[in-house]
Protein 1
Amino acid sequence: MRLHFELARRGYRRYAAYPGATYAGLFTNVFFGFLIAYILLAVYDERDVIGGYDVRDAIAYVWISQGLLSVAAIFGPSWYELARRVQTGDVATDLQRPLDVQRAELAQDVGRACYQLLWRAAPQFLLGALVFEITIPDELARWLLFTISVALAVAVSFGVRLLVNLSAFWLLDYRGPLLLALAVSQLLSGATIPLAFFPGALDTIARLTPFASMLQAPVDVYVGQPLGGSTLAVLALQGGWAVALYAAGGLVLSAGTRKLVLQGG
Amino acid sequence: MADLARIYVHLVGARIRSQLEYRLSAAFQLAGTALLTALDFAAIAAIFANVDQLGDWSIREVALLYALATISFALTDLVVGHLDLLPQMIREGTLDGILVRPLPLLFQLVAADFAIRRVGKALQGVGVLIFALVTVDIDWSVGRVLAIPFAIAAGAVIYAAVWVSLATIAFWIVDAIEVVNAFTYGGSFLSQYPIGIFARWLRGLVVFVVPIAFVAYFPALYLLDKDDALGLPRAFSFVSPLVACLAAIAATAIWQNAVRHYRSAGG
Amino acid sequence: MIEVHDVEKRFIVRAKTGRLRRERREVMAVDGISFEIESGAMVGYVGPNGAGKSTTVKMLTGILVPSAGRLRVAGLDPSRQRIELARRIGVVFGQRSQLWWDLPLADSFDLLRHIYRVPAQRPRENLERFTATLGLGAFMTTPVRQLSLGQRMRGELTAALLHDPDIVFLDEPTIGLDVVAKSAVREFLTDVNRNRGVTVLLTTHDLADIERLCSRLLIVDHGHLIWDGGLDELKRRYGQERTLVVDLEETVPPLELPGVRVTRVEGPRQWLAFRRDETSAAELTAAVAARAPLLDLAIEETQIEEIVRRIYAAGGAPLAT
C-alpha cells in the first residue's frame, strides 16, 4: 500500500516538474472554455432547454468538461506512452520488477489526476464560475456524488487507455488505431458537445459507452440530469465499466507479456 | 524563386515517398484524421439538431463558413503544420545543421515535411463545402464564383502567417509552447463559427489583431450577401487577399527578427 | 581563407536562485580569439569541453553572430552572408546527423545536390570517387537510420564534400568510431586536403587525429587561445609524457624501471608513465617483459586536458606563429 502511495506521488511529481506546461495547458483550457461557452450561449438564445440542460447547466458543462479533459485524460501522452515503451522493448524492465504493472500504472495515473485536478481543473472551473452564470448545486450530497463520479471517471479512463496502449503488443504501428481511438473517445465522452445534444436514441446509446463514463457522467451528476433519472445508476454504470475494463486490462496484459516472453522481446 | 520552387518539390517529394512506403499505416492515419475532423462537424450538426439558427445563421450557412475555414486550415497544416516541431529542434540542436545549408531557414523548415494524413482534413472540408454550396441559396455571379478559391487561398496564407508568427515564440521561450497550440487550434476552431456570437473583445481581436476573421467569416458574408451583425463595413468582405499579403509581410518580419535573436543569443 | 580577429562571444545565462528569483550572469564563451588559416591548410582545433571550440566554429559557419570582433571566411562575413558562405563550405557534426534519417543514403546525396544547386556532373564524379575511396557501395541503398556509426560518418563526409567546398569544418568526426573506421576517415581527410586543396578545420578531442592529420594546432581554453603552433613543438614542450598500461600475468608490486613512474596499480594492471624523449614504448615493453610476463598492453597519450593544465602551469603564453 505504501509503495502505491509512493508511485502516486511519483505520478504527481512528474507533472509538477513542468509548471510551464501546466500554465500553458490551463491557458488552453480557459481559451477554449470561453469559445465554447459563447457558442453555447448563442445556442441557448434560441431555446431554453436542450436534453434536460438549461443554459446554466450547459455553461457548467463547459467548465467541468474542460477540467475533465486533463483530469480524465481525454487526450494526452498517457494514451501512448506505455505503447511506446512496448515498441522500444523498454517495457521488459517494467515487467521484470516485482510489481503488478497494472496497479503500478494506476497508482501513477491517480497521482497525475490529483495534480491536474488541483492545478488545472479547479482554477479554470473557478474562473468560469466567476465570469459566467453556472449551475451550482446547493446540496452537499450532490457534491459528494460528483466527487465520487470524477474518481470513477479517472478509473474508467485508465481502463480504456491501458487497453489502447496494450494494443502495441500486437500492432507494429499503433498510431493509426490510436488516432481512431482518440476520435471515438472525444466524441462519445461528450468532450466536443454534451451528449444531451444528441438526438434521443443516440444520446442513450452514447451514454452507455465507457467513454461517456469518462466525462459526461460526472457532468450529468453535477447538473442533476443523470441517465434514467438515477444518480446511483450512473455511478454504478461507471463502477461497472471501471471494474470490467480493469479486469480486461489484466487479461490482455498477461497475454501480451506471454507473447513478449515467447518472442524473446 | 523558381529555383526554390524546384528545390521544394524535390525535398517534399522525398518526404512523401518515404511516407508512402508504409502504405497501410498511412491509410490508417488518413482515415483516422478524416474521422477526427468529421467530428468537428458532428459537433455543429449536433447543435443544429436542436436549434434552427445560430445568431442569424442557419446550419447550411454555418456549414459554408466551416468548410472555408477547414479547407484553408488543412492546406496550411499540410504545408507548415510541422513547425510545431521547432521547439524540439531547438532543444536538440538540429537547427545548426540546417543553418549551414545555403537556403533560408524558414524555407528549409517548411520543406522538411508534408504529412499526407493531413489531406484527410482537406477532403472532409471539401465534402462539407459541396454540401453547403448545393443546399444554400447563393446569388451566383462571377465575383462570387471566384471568391471561393481566392478566399481559400487567402485564408491559407493568413493562417500560415499566424502560425509562423506564433512558432517564433520557440526562439524566445523554452517552455510553455502549448500556448501556441491554444492559439493555432483555438483560432481554427473559432473561425468555423460566425464571429457575431463571440464577445466584443474576442471579435475585435480576430478582426483587427490576428485577422482570422478574414479567412472564412468575411468571405462567407460576401457569398451569402449578409451583413455583419455588428455593422462592420461591407468592404471588409473583399479584402481577404490584401489582408493575406499584409499578414505575410508581418509574419516574415517577425520571423526574421526572431532568427536574428536566436543567432545572437546562443544557438 | 579564414580570418579571426579579436572575436568575442557573450552569452547571458539565467540561473534559478531560490524559488522565484532568477540570476542573470554573463558568460564569455569566447574572449578575444585571433588567428588566421591560409588556404589548403589542415588545422586542428582542440580544447577541453566548454572551452569555446564549438562556439567559434558556430561563428565561423554563420550559425552564431559574434558579440565583437571580425570574422572572414573565404572573404565573406559569416553572420551577414550566411547563405552565400554556406555554398562554399561543408560541415560535419560528429554528434548529429545532417542526412535524411528515413531515406536511403543515395537519396540524401541526391537531395543535397539539389539544395546546393550544383550541376549534376561534378557531384556525380565526386560521388563515384568517394564511393570508391570510402567503400560506400555496400550501403548506398540502406536507410540512414540503419547505418552503423562508421558507415554514417563516411556518408556525412561525402555529403559535406559533394559540392566541392573550399573549406570543411569537422566537429568530432571520429568520435565513437572503431579503429578501422577512424583510419578510413583520416585517410580520406588527408587525401581531400592534399589532392583537392580543401582547407580543413578539425575540432576534436582525439589527439591521435591531430597527430595523423594536422601540422598546426590551435588550443583554446576558457575562451582564450592558448596555443597556436606546430604539434611537434607542442609535444616537445608539454607532451613528453606517455603512459604504458600493462596487463601482467599476475599481480606484482609496482615495477621499478629507470625513468619510469608508476602512476596507478589495479591488480595485475599497472600504469607506467615515461618520457617520450627518454624511452620508446618498444624499449619499455621489452624491459617490462623481462621483469614480468605480459599479457597485454596499451599506450595512453597525454590527454589534452593534461597538456592544457601544463600550459597554464607554465605560464600559458600562446606561441605566436
Note: The mean pLDDT of chain B is 87.
Protein 2
Amino acid sequence: MANQLLEIKDLDVYYGDVQILRSVSMHVEEGTIVAIVGANGAGKTTLLKTISGLIKSRQGEILLAGEPLHTLGPKGIVDKGVIQVPEGRRLFSSLTIYENLRLGAYIPRSRPLFNQSLEKVFTLFPILKDRQNQKAGSLSGGEQQMLAIARAVMAQPRLLMLDEPSLGLSPILVRTIFQLITTLNEHKTTILLVEQNIHQTLKIAHHAFVLRIGRIVMDGTGSELLANDNIWKDYIGARQVKG
Amino acid sequence: MHFIQALVNGILFGTTYGIAAIGLSLIFGTMRIIFLAQGTFIVFFAYVVYFLFTLLGIDPYIALVIVIPIALLLGWLMYYSIFKEAAALEDRNISLLLAVGLMYLVENIMLVAWTADPRSIVTPYTGLVFRPFEIVIPFTKLIALIIALVSTAGVYFFLKKTLIGTAVRAASEDMVSTTLMGINPNFVNAVAFAIGIGLAGISGVAFASIFPFDPGYGFTFAIKALIALALGGIGNVAGALLGGILLGVIESLASFYVGGGWADAISYGVFILVLSLRPQGITGKALKKA
C-alpha cells in the first residue's frame, strides 16, 4: 500500500468490561481525507480518543508512519503532530481567540512556526483575525467550530482528526465547514474525519470506513460507498435526506 | 475617625488573606481541590523567616529573596512527590484528603520541633508607625500591603502574558482539552502548586513581621483564605485579593464595633451568607448550574 501515514491493526478497546472496538483495522494514506462513518454509538469517537491516547487500547497497534503511537501518552502523541479537534469543540471560552490559537501551537514542533501558522489561519478564517482579542465564548456556534479547527491547524498537524465538526450547525454552515476541510486538504493536510453527516462526508472523502457496533464492516472510496445502497440500509439506518 | 481607622486596619491586614486566597484559587483551578494545607505552609514559612532572623540575623524582607525560590521549589516537588498520582484520578476527594493529611503532618512536625510557644519577630522597625491625617499606619502592615499588591500583579501578569500562564488558565477551564494541546497535566498542576506555595512563602514573610504565630494557626488561616476566596469568587486573581481585603475589613469593623470575640463568628456568618445567596462570590460571574 502506498505511503500510509496512519495504520491501525486489530485494535480492541474496552470501557471497563464492555468492549467498544473489536479488531478494528484501518489506514489513512498521506495527503488524503479519510472518513469514518457509522451510526450513533458505533465507536467512532472512541476510535479517535484511542488514537489520541485519551483511552488505552487492550490489543492491537496504532502506527504513525510506521512508528508506534499506542505506546505513547496523549502528550507524546500530540507532540508527533496527531491533533484532534474533539466533539463539542472544547474551546477555552474564557480565553481570547488569540490565546486559544497560541495554545494550539504549544507543542515544540509548531511553537517556532507560530507567526507563520497564525498568518495561514487568519487567511483561512478572516473573521478570527478581526476578533482575535474577543473571548472565544462570545463567538457563535459556527465561529466556535472554525476556531476549534483553526486552533488545531496552529499545531501544523501531520494528521488532523475531526470529531463531528458539523454537529449542531445550520445547513449553510455545514457546507462552509466541509468546504473548509477540502481546502485544508488541498493545503496538504491529511485528515481523518468522523461524521454523522454521511452524504456530505462521502462526497469529500477519498476513502471511508463504515463502523458498526465496534467493527469495520465495509470500506471503499467515498463515491463507491455513496453509490452502495446497502450501506444505508444495513449499517447506518435510514437513508439520510441529501444534506 | 474610628471607623476610618478600623477600615484602614482591615484593608492592611486583609491583603495578607488575599494573597493566601490567590494561592488557593490557583491550586483549585487546575487540581479542583481546596488546598487546606495552605495556611500551615504560611506558618511554616513564618518559622523559616523567624529562624533566618534570629539565628542568622537576616532581615525578614531581605529573607523574601531566599524564601520565594525555596517555596516555589517546595511546591513543585510536593506536587510531583505527593499529589501526582492522586491528581490523575477522577475522584477529587483523594487529593483533598492528601491536603488534609499534609496539613496535620506539617503542623505536628512543627509542634514537636518548635513547640507551641508563640514566636514573634522584633526588628528595629516593628514599632514604627506613620500617622497621616491622624490615622495610624504601622510600617510592617504597610509593607505587607505593598508585598500583596506586587505579588498579585506578578501572578496576574504571569497568567495573562506568558504562554505557561495561559496554559494554566486553560487547564483551569478544561484539562482534557488542554491535554489535547500537548500540554502535560502534571506540568500545569505543578506550576499551580509552585505558585500557590510560593505565595504561602510570601504570606509567611508578611505574617511573621506583623503577628505572633504558633503551629496551630495554620488551619484557621487556611479557612480565612477560603472565606476570602468565596467572597471574591473562585478563579479570579483580583477577586481573591478583594475578597481578602473585604474579609479583613469585616473582621476589623466587627471587632471594633461588636467586640474582638465576635470578629471570627461574624466573618464565618458572612461566609455562609454570601455562599448561600451569591455562590459565585461578590465579584465573580455566574457559575454554571448543575
Note: Chain A touches chain B at residues 52, 54, 74-75, 78-79, 83-84, 86, 90-95, 99, 102-104, 106-107, 151, 155 (CB under 8 Å).
